Structure formats: C-alpha cells, structure tokens
Amino acid sequence: MDMSKMTSGVPMVRIDGAKVRNLREAKGLTQLFLATSVGVTTDTISRWENKRYPTIKKENGLKLAEALEVDVAEILECVEQEEVQPVAAEEPDAGPDEEPALQPAEEIAAEPPLPASPSQSGTKFAVLAALLVVLLFFLGWWLYPGSEQFTITASRLLPRHAVAGKPFPVAVTVASNSTTSLSLIVRENLPKGAVLQSAVPPYSAYDGKTSEVKWLRKIDGSQVFAYMVKVEVQEGSVAFAGKVALPKGAGQQIDVGGDSVVEMSHFHWADADADGRISDEEILMVYDEFSEIKGLAINIDQVEEIWLGSGYVWNAEKERFEVLP
C-alpha cells in the first residue's frame, strides 16, 4: 500500500474514497459525523469519497480511520492493484478544508548519484544506518500511534412512576476524563407507546416508528442529554435503553446505565415515594436534577402548586391532577 508521501514537509496518505463511503454506510454514519470527527466540512468528506482529492493529510487520515473504527490501512488505496495516475492539480476555488494533491513520483527529476570513492565508504555506511533508524522510527510511529487513555460513563435519570399520556423528564449524563473534546453518538430507545415531546440539546434524528432518538455531539468533560416524553401505556412498567458510540480507543460503544424502568400509575412523576403529595425533599430533588436544564419543558408551576397544597389526586375523567387545599 501507498502508506505515505511527503508534500512540502507535510505527511500525506492516499485514501480509497469508495472504501471510506462503504464503511461509513455499513456503520450507519453520516457525512456530518465524519466531518465533525475529523474537523472538516461535509463537502470535503464528499470530495474524498468521490476521489476528487484522494490524497489527504496523514493526520486527517488517522482521524478518519478512528471515526470509522478501523485501522488506517483499511482505507488506504492499494496502488499495486492499479496504475498510479497523475493527481489533478487543486482547483483555484478550493476551500481551506481541501487537501493538496501530490505530484506523481515520475515527475520529480532526480539526478544520478556520483560514484563513491573508497574514502567515502565509511561515511555512506553511517548515513545509510541513520536513514534506517529514521525509517524504523517512522514505521513504529505509523503503526502504533500514541493515544490518550480515557474513560467515558453514561447514566440515565428517570422518575420512578408516571401517568399515562402525561409528559415526564428523562436525563442522560455522559462524562469523560479526556483532556480534549470527543465526538460521540448518544442513542436512546424509548419504550413501546412512547412519544418524544422535546429534547435538550436538540436531537440529530428521531424515528417515530422505532422510537429511537439520536444525538451527534462533541463534548468537553460532561454533557446532559435530556428530553420530555409521554407514554400511552395505562399500567405496568415500561423500559428505556440506550448506548453511546465512542471514539476508537475507548471501546466501540457502551450501554447507558442508571435508571431504566418507569412504573405507570396515577402518581405525579415528582412524587418519588407515591404518597399523594410532593414533599420539601422531593421538590428540591426536582430542582437539583431537572429544573436547571435550560430549555427542558418541565411544568414546574404544577409541581410547585402541588407542593404548596396538602396533596393531590389524579382525576382520570378530566385527565388532570387536582390539588387538595
């Protein structure tokens, strides 16, 4: 394989756009995800996949392979299987995200070396030995690049119970000890009969048929992914599940831990112990866990109204909570 070349001192690699596109589609990733992970535009990803700019910076090649969760060798072009064609010069209107094209090696004129004299034998041997050491170092760096060791955790916070057809909040906290920003995908699989009402931050995709909601984000340290949902199931329990797709090096994906089951009943979601009232401790818990999530559409006025009263009851006929004086 054409592992790398140099252009103006910048390490370059020649990628196979078709392989990149096939891997991306097989993993269900979007060009937007690859662009976010590499730090380029979606137009650049499209140009790479269509072989308009087959030679890219080695740094971007490593990021691209990491986003696709494969070794970089799997996206390189196999030059021995086809003739090396001259690479077209970069168009005048190319943006800053495009990669410089490489000139074919045949076009680089090389002057024949002068015959070495016996007195130069020792010097030539030392030079060759030094070049060999540099080559071995470069290959070792290429095959075993250093990477930051970090961990990622994901935990879900759910109310213990909720009323059928009434919205309640869910929060998934993803945290990392990485010193750099990380691109990741958060997937939440809602239970059967669930309807997503809103999400903070806004979701990247939501499939109402499969009840799956996705976020594609970069996080620094930690990020809360919250949403309001209602479930039409009248009784019994409903289960939530989710996964987080991670950068290569932290594992391909992890399950979202924490709470996973909500019991469908006639108690308000903020009434944690289901005793028919919202206590001081329970309203403080609501404020600590949910009310500080900006943009989350919690009916905090209703929670406060029930807290100020002596209790509440669920009026099934009118489908509303009634506060007791």
If you had to describe this structure to a student in words, what would you say it looks like?
The chain is α+β, with helices and mostly antiparallel strands and 325 residues long. The protein folds into two domains: 102 residues, 434 Repressor (Amino-terminal Domain), CATH 1.10.260.40; 173 residues, Immunoglobulin-like (Sandwich). Helix content is 25%, strand content 28%. It has seven helices and 18 strands. It has a five-stranded mixed beta sheet, with no helix packed on it. Strand 9 and strand 10 form a beta hairpin. Helix 2 packs across helix 3. The longest helix is centred in the middle third of the chain and has 23 residues. It is elongated and about 100 Å long. The N terminus is likely disordered.
Instruction: Calculate the mean pLDDT score and round it.
Output: 80
Secondary-structure-based class equals alpha+beta
Please bin the fraction of helical residues.
10-25%
What's the CATH topology label of the largest domain?
Answer: Immunoglobulin-like
Number of strands: 18
Task: Tell me the name of the CATH class of the largest domain.
Answer: Mainly Beta
Q: Distance between the terminal alpha carbons, to the nearest Å?
A: 78 Å
Radius of gyration, in Å, reads: 29 Å
Whole-number total of structural domains? 2
Q: What is the 3D form?
A: elongated
Q: Topology as H/E string?
A: EEHHHEHHEEEEEEEEEEEEEHHEE
Q: Could you name the CATH homologous superfamily of the largest domain?
A: Immunoglobulins
The CATH level-2 architecture of the largest domain is identified as: Sandwich
Sheet having the most strands: 5 strands, mixed
